[in-house]
Every structure is written in structure tokens, then in C-alpha cells.
Amino acid sequence: MSALLFEAVVAGVLLGGVYGLVALGLNIIYGVLDIINFAHGAMMMMGMYLTFWLFRAWGIDPYLSIFIAGPVLFVFGAVVYRFLLDPMRGTALQNQFLVTLGLSLFLTNAAQAMFSPDFRVLQTSYAQEVVQIGPAFIPLTRIFTFLAALAATAVLLFIFQRTRLGRSIRAVAQQQDGAALCGIDVRHVYTLAFAIGSACVGVAGAAVTPFFYVSPTVGDVFNIASFVVVVLGGLGSMSGSLLGGLLLGVAVAIGAAILPGSFKEVLMFAIFLAVLLFKPTGLLGSKA
């Protein structure tokens, strides 16, 4: 394996960890509420702007901002569900889709009005530091971001597998009426599930800010990636999100190394269409 290809694979795995975390949040929301959150990327943009301005105003390290952006997006997600989505329960499914799409447009345009459409870049003291892994030289920020995404994913898996809250969420996802008969507050679980999914993009947004540009439309990039990952891994499958994130990250990194830069998004859509055509349930998804 050439040094360039090896470096692309390593970079892809590191980026795939972030894709996996973002898609995990999207999959949690879909798996529990049967809602595809089109505002997912816009919420990530909020986390990135929050991290950027915390660094600019108070010098808070972006990786420490994870502990601020995550809870802020958690609360924001809970408010969005209670006041925008909960009243739509029981109505046509497309109404909920339109609400999240409208929210995405609102957040994007609000960010443009507040911060201008300009691209911004956060420069930390360690932004230029690199680590050698075999023949590859990997930016230190990419490694920190991957570790942050890995830690957040581990916390999520622990919550879902080992806690009473996680068991309640899984029970509601599997059988809402049965969970309600067991005394589980379904509405409360729905709110928490949407809030947790939103917190995922808050953490991811803070984690990628040290090496990714910040703009009102940056969420679109991760929205596309998260939808591709969810379809690739399988709707409703948490492990599928992680696997899909890693595979997409590696595919995009290798594609960027051997193809012109403008083909990056084309490659994402090509993977998306290929999965829909040949494996519509995804790699680890179950048949309806």
C-alpha cells in the first residue's frame, strides 16, 4: 500500500468516527420517533458556531466546548420536540418532515443574518501539529476529534445497553403501546430521544470545528453524509451507523486522494444510490 493511500485510509477512519456519531443521532431519532430530522445538519452548524464563538470570546478550547455544546443542543432538541414536533404526533407523517425541514431553513437563514455567509476558520495553538502513524502524517486535531467521537459513542452505547433510560428508549422503539402499559412515559421518552440525537450533533460540531470551516450552510455537508451513512448502515441500526460512518469516511478519503476534489459529493451520492439499488435495507438493517 502506497503512503498516500495509507494516509487516506487512516484519515478516512478518523473522519468516519465523526460521520458515525452524527448518523447515530439521526438513527436514534428515527428509530424511536419514526421521524427523519432534516434539521440535523443545521443543529450541528449551531454547535460549530457556539464552539467558534466560545473560543473567540473566552478562549475556551474547542474540545472543552464539547461539554457545553452537547448539553446546549440537548436542551434545544428537547424544546424543539415539545413545542414543534410533539403537537404533530398523530398527524400525517409528512407534516413532521416539513416541520424539521422548515426548522433547518430557519436556522440556516438565521445564522446568515447573524453571522453573514462568510466562511470562518478556528485557529488553535496546536492546529498545525501532526502525528506520524506508519508512513502517514495525520493532523493532531483529527486524532482528538476521532477520540472525542469515540468517547461520545461509547457513552451512548453504555446508556442504551446498561441503564434504565436506555431500556425504556429501546422498549418504546420496539413497541410503543406495550411500553406504555408497563408504565413508561412515552412522551417523555420521545423528548429524551430527540434531545439525545440533537446532543450527538452538538458534540460532533464542537469536535470538528478545529479543522473544518464554519458557515451557515456547513450543516448541509454533514446532513448529506449522515443520510448516506444511515442508508448504508441500515435505518434504525446503531451498529450500522458506526460501520457505515467508517466505510463512508474511508471511501470519501480514498476518493479525495485519487479523484478531483469536486467529485467528493458525487461519490457520496453514488454510494447512496448504489445501496438503495442493491441493498435497500442497508448493511445491518432489518427488513420491514
From TrEMBL:
<keyword id="KW-0812">Transmembrane</keyword>
<feature type="transmembrane region" description="Helical">
    <location>
        <begin position="189"/>
        <end position="212"/>
    </location>
</feature>
<feature type="transmembrane region" description="Helical">
    <location>
        <begin position="136"/>
        <end position="160"/>
    </location>
</feature>
<protein>
    <recommendedName>
        <fullName>Branched-chain amino acid ABC transporter permease</fullName>
    </recommendedName>
</protein>
<dbReference type="InterPro" id="IPR052157">
    <property type="entry name" value="BCAA_transport_permease"/>
</dbReference>
<keyword id="KW-0029">Amino-acid transport</keyword>
<keyword id="KW-0472">Membrane</keyword>
<dbReference type="InterPro" id="IPR001851">
    <property type="entry name" value="ABC_transp_permease"/>
</dbReference>
<feature type="transmembrane region" description="Helical">
    <location>
        <begin position="266"/>
        <end position="285"/>
    </location>
</feature>
<dbReference type="GO" id="GO:0022857">
    <property type="term" value="F:transmembrane transporter activity"/>
</dbReference>
<feature type="transmembrane region" description="Helical">
    <location>
        <begin position="97"/>
        <end position="116"/>
    </location>
</feature>
<feature type="transmembrane region" description="Helical">
    <location>
        <begin position="64"/>
        <end position="85"/>
    </location>
</feature>
<comment type="similarity">
    <text>Belongs to the binding-protein-dependent transport system permease family. LivHM subfamily.</text>
</comment>
<feature type="transmembrane region" description="Helical">
    <location>
        <begin position="38"/>
        <end position="58"/>
    </location>
</feature>
<keyword id="KW-0813">Transport</keyword>
<keyword id="KW-1003">Cell membrane</keyword>
<keyword id="KW-1133">Transmembrane helix</keyword>
<dbReference type="GO" id="GO:0006865">
    <property type="term" value="P:amino acid transport"/>
</dbReference>
<feature type="transmembrane region" description="Helical">
    <location>
        <begin position="6"/>
        <end position="26"/>
    </location>
</feature>
<dbReference type="GO" id="GO:0005886">
    <property type="term" value="C:plasma membrane"/>
</dbReference>
<dbReference type="Pfam" id="PF02653">
    <property type="entry name" value="BPD_transp_2"/>
</dbReference>
